[in-house]
Write a structure and sequence with these properties.
The complex is a heterodimer of chains A (542) and B (354).
Chain A lengths: L17 H22 L4 H10 L1 H33 L3 H11 L6 H12 L4 H6 L9 H11 L1 H14 L2 H9 L4 H30 L2 H6 L6 H10 L4 H25 L24 H25 L1 E3 L3 E4 L2 H8 L2 H27 L5 H11 L7 H12 L10 H27 L2 H8 L4 H12 L1 H16 L16 H10 L3 H31 L6
Antiparallel strand pairs in A: 1-2
Chain B lengths: L1 H40 L3 E6 L3 H15 L2 E6 L2 H10 L8 E6 H10 L25 E13 H6 L24 E4 L5 H29 E5 L4 H7 L5 E5 H9 L4 E4 L6 E8 L6 H11 L2 H11 L2 E2 L24 H6 L1 H13 L1
Parallel strand pairs in B: 1-2, 1-3, 5-6, 5-7
Antiparallel strand pairs in B: 3-9, 4-7, 4-8, 4-9, 4-10
Helix pairs in contact in B: 2-10, 3-4, 6-12
Classes of the chains: A mainly alpha (542), B alpha/beta (354).
């Protein structure tokens, strides 16, 4: 059956498409309404006034400049790492994979703090080891920190691309006598180009949205995200924050839209882990890649070791004597951690179930509708968290949600913020499976319910779990979405860490961060073990 | 047969896990729902948006609860956020009380009609000059602006050899401190703004900005939080800063080599509190407002935060000079300071954007 290019609905009855239309409507309402609320908050006169005074120009320039260099460096490293790890098996390779993902486990600004402790004036490394005095405050420090903090995203985007390349091309090239460099230049790179470009755009949008790191390390180097935060927290000008937010949305949305229109390639999802065959000889030439990646991986390790050490020292940065008091205090009053876990669990389960249902309804509908859904569902990737927070604050103040004292708003905001991750993964899953199995089952007399529960659910089980675990992790370490929404008794661990840093209790902040990281690791390990156990018992059909 | 059973087991286990997830989900939902309902149901509570530190707030809340049986729920915020939330939630009542932050924060809120006019009965002991004459906000503590430095750094840093540590505000523009100085930003912190406004009122508009420009040459960067500058000097990242004396003192008590100088012609904050116009637990809010100005609250706040209580019977914080021995800038005018904030911040943006 030939499909029309702009086919809104599937050929057939309108009735069958109602679930998909409902999904599309839901996505549009849930995601677009907060954005519209921000864009329309300030009146046209206020827009004109604020745009004319021009203070945002400098910040916008800084934002774009810093995001550009950080994106380039982190993508370079991420791609190198992806190349190396996907063609190598063994301990080194899997260690590199794991280390490059560590920054996902902690709130980003913890990295910035540890970086100061390591490389600041009194820094452990710069001063005590190398005898240098450098000043990390400014764009250089920010560059390094963002390169570290966004490496996991660059790595996953690149790895997804590299791993999608069928082995057969490489084997063919080898058989035709191509040298290793030729394979890299003429086979791998061209095949990765699309994926890399759209991955770069994704990382760029993420870096552009970062505000925890600049808050701590950027010094006088003002960015648009910190400006938004400062407009609210310092100057209490919500209208100005809303206007700045709209300005920030323009490049993010433009780039995002371009990448969606130009590349249909779905780079916003994290692929299953395939590694390539190990090509003897081919991998030899890649050994230099190790040298390129080693420093940054060591830096990541050093940063997190510094955090762990900080958790057990009396006064971080001054009195390095061992103490357990900070850790004890965390465990005696774990309210914020409990909140974090509850919100993360709720939002990621709701989001996973929701996205599973949405992706299910979209599996066989017309392409215009699915493209609309793809576009809108992945949109939160391009929205800075602080803007979502602002949007929800503006939206829900004055409604019945207020009486819930913000707990439900936090869960809703986190759920929407997580939609791209879950949706991307589950939608790709449905696309990869195709409809053939459903058709086969139906011709054998299976009902729709059995198709859902006995075909799609087991086959997509791994993806469901990983979509849950990714959004759980994201929610646990999230600061920007919650920062304007928390109320009495609903502060999360990341809010608490930021408050502790502000009060100068860096060791306590480190203790809380360490606990959070440990919990994240435990959750990951348990989920991984449970899925593996279930999947092993299964007769896998692919 | 074998394959068949194993398949059935798989499907069942997947379904079981999904249903387990749902059961868990709903139980948690229920659990959190109960929690908030309890909060709603108890009439004996008051919700405070607070910009005082967590430790003080916890102690104050506990003491008030002990005395009155009214539960204090609080959200810790920066003074700016506190005011932003009060404005954003004008039509959807949330909090009852705003607590902490200098009166400069409260003045614009008063003009926006967010605050409730109230005259506490038991505040007669705190002199009337410390509260809004119209009764919209009420002062209860004060903190002093100081110059701080890291003594260890002055001993060890080679580039600082033979250079004296700062003893006055004028020393801050000493060119030897170039890029060794940090300070809280006047745009985002109350302390930063107070320092700037004080220099302008002390020296007049022209000389004041001359001073601030030279200060700007020395400043490595302005921090976004009031305490950040203290941390950076405490840990030796930077040598000198202007900052709150009380917060610096708390940092010094942690063991950092921090020296605190209270310079001549310094300035103070007037820490205030207010009842929100939309307060839902009005009676409790009024009780809290009366209590926060009492001697008991003053003693707790002073002991933990090292700020000065405005209650005449509360002694000054341990280790700090008495208020009367401090030289304040007599020409500092709070109302004018609040009024010129916009202009000062615009000029600050210009200065730092160059």
């Amino acid at each position: 059956m030939k499909k029309g290019k702009f086919q809104l609905l599937r050929y057939g009855s309108f009735k069958d498409d109602i679930p998909a239309i409902i999904s599309a409507l839901f996505l549009c309402i849930a995601i677009l309404v907060p954005l519209v609320r921000i864009a329309t908050y300030a009146s046209i006169d206020e827009y004109r006034l604020i745009l004319e005074n021009g203070y945002w120009v400098n910040s916008l320039r800084n934002s774009i400049a810093s995001a550009t260099i950080a994106t380039l460096s982190t993508m370079l490293l991420g791609f190198t790492l992806a190349l190396y790890t996907s063609f190598h098996k063994g301990i080194i390779s899997s260690c590199m994979r794991q280390i490059s993902k560590i920054p996902l486990l902690s709130p980003p600004f913890v990295v910035a703090l540890a970086f100061i402790m390591l490389f600041g004036y009194n820094g452990f490394i710069t001063n005590d080891v190398m005898g240098l005095t450098i000043n990390p405050y400014g764009w250089i420090g920010l560059w390094v920190i963002q390169t570290v903090a966004f490496l996991p995203y660059a790595f996953t985007a690149s790895a997804a691309t590299v791993e999608e390349i069928p082995d057969i091309y490489i084997v063919a090239a080898q058989n035709l006598g191509a040298s290793k460099t030729v394979i890299l230049r003429k086979v791998l790179l061209p095949l990765c180009k699309t994926g890399l470009v759209s991955g770069t755009i994704l990382v760029f949008v993420y870096v552009l949205a970062d505000f925890g790191n600049p808050l701590i390390i950027a010094g006088n180097y003002n960015l648009l995200t910190t400006d938004i935060y400062m407009q609210i927290v310092g100057w209490y000008r919500i209208d100005r924050a809303a206007v700045y937010g709209t300005i920030l949305l323009i490049p993010s949305l433009a780039l995002y839209s371009i990448s969606r229109i130009v590349f249909k390639h779905n780079s916003f999802s994290i692929s299953d882990k395939y590694t390539h065959y190990e090509y003897k000889g081919f991998s030899e030439s890649m050994r230099w890649l190790l040298l390129l990646c080693a420093p940054i991986l060591i830096l990541i390790l050093a940063i997190y070791i510094a955090v762990a050490i900080g958790a057990f020292t009396s006064v971080w940065g001054y009195d390095w004597s061992f103490t357990l008091t900070h850790m004890q205090q965390v465990w005696v009053r774990p309210d914020t951690i409990v909140n974090t876990l509850i919100y993360s669990f709720l939002s990621s389960s709701v989001c996973t179930v929701l996205c599973f249902i949405i992706a299910y309804t979209l599996r066989n509908t017309g392409n215009l509708l699915t493209r609309l859904c793809d576009y809108v569902a992945l949109l939160p990737n391009a929205i800075p968290g602080i803007l979502l927070s602002l949007g929800f604050l503006l939206m829900y103040s004055g409604t019945l949600f207020d009486s819930e004292r913000h707990a439900s708003i936090i869960v809703i905001a986190l759920t929407i913020w997580n939609i791209p991750a879950c949706y991307g993964m589950l939608r790709t899953g449905f696309l990869q499976l195709g409809l053939s199995k459903e058709h086969a089952a139906k011709s054998l007399g299976a009902r729709q319910r059995s198709v859902l529960l006995q075909i799609y659910l087991p086959l997509l089980f791994r993806r469901i779990v990983s979509s849950f675990s990714v959004s759980f992790l994201r929610s646990m370490t999230c600061l920007s979405v919650i920062i304007l929404l928390y109320g009495a008794g609903t502060a999360t661990a990341s809010i608490s860490i930021l408050a502790l840093i502000n009060e100068g209790k860096w060791s306590k902040a480190a203790a809380l961060s360490t606990t959070l990281i440990l919990i994240a690791i435990i959750v990951e390990v348990v989920l991984h073990a449970v899925t593996n156990r279930i999947m092993r018992e299964k007769t896998v059909i692919t | 047969m074998r394959i068949l059973t194993s398949k059935r087991f798989d499907n069942n286990s997947a379904i079981k896990i999904i249903s387990l997830m749902f059961v868990l989900l709903f139980s948690v939902l229920l659990f959190t729902g109960c929690n908030t309902e309890n909060g709603e149901a108890s009439s004996g509570s008051v919700l405070v948006y607070s910009s005082v530190h967590e430790e003080e707030m916890t102690a104050l809340a506990a003491a008030f609860e002990d005395e009155t049986g009214i539960k204090v729920e609080f959200v810790l915020l920066s003074a700016g956020e506190m005011s932003a939330r009060a404005l954003a939630e004008k039509d959807s009542p949330q909090a009852d009380i705003l607590l902490g932050g200098s009166m400069e924060v409260y003045e614009p809120l008063k003009d926006e009609g967010v605050l409730l006019q109230y005259r506490p009965q038991e505040s007669s002991l705190i002199p009337g000059e410390y509260s809004d004459p119209d009764g919209y906000w009420h002062g209860w503590y004060t903190g002093i602006m100081a110059v701080i430095y890291n003594s260890e750094r002055f001993e060890q840093d080679e580039t600082l050899q033979g250079i004296n540590p700062p003893a006055s505000n004028d020393d801050l523009i000493n060119q030897n401190y170039k890029n060794m100085l940090v300070g809280p930003s006047p745009a985002t912190t109350g302390s930063g703004y107070l320092f700037f406004a004080n220099q302008i009122m002390l020296h007049g508009d022209i000389e004041g900005w001359e001073y601030l420009n030279r200060l700007n040459d020395n400043v490595n960067h302005y921090t976004k939080g009031g305490n950040d500058a203290i941390n950076l000097v405490a840990t030796g990242e930077f040598a000198v800063a202007y900052a709150w004396a009380h917060d610096s003192y708390a940092s010094r008590l942690q063991g950092y080599p921090l020296e605190i100088v209270i310079p001549d012609n310094t300035v103070s904050e007037l820490g205030a509190a207010a009842i929100l116009d939309s307060a839902q637990n009005l009676e409790n809010a009024e009780l809290f407002m009366n209590w926060i100005q009492s001697e008991e609250a003053g003693i707790i706040k002073t002991e933990i935060s090292h700020t000065y209580s405005l209650h005449p019977d509360v002694p000054p914080p341990a280790g700090m000079p008495s208020l009367s021995s401090i030289s304040f800038n007599a020409s500092y005018d709070r109302i004018q300071s609040g009024a010129m904030k916009e202009v000062v911040l615009e000029r600050f943006s210009e200065m730092t954007n160059e």
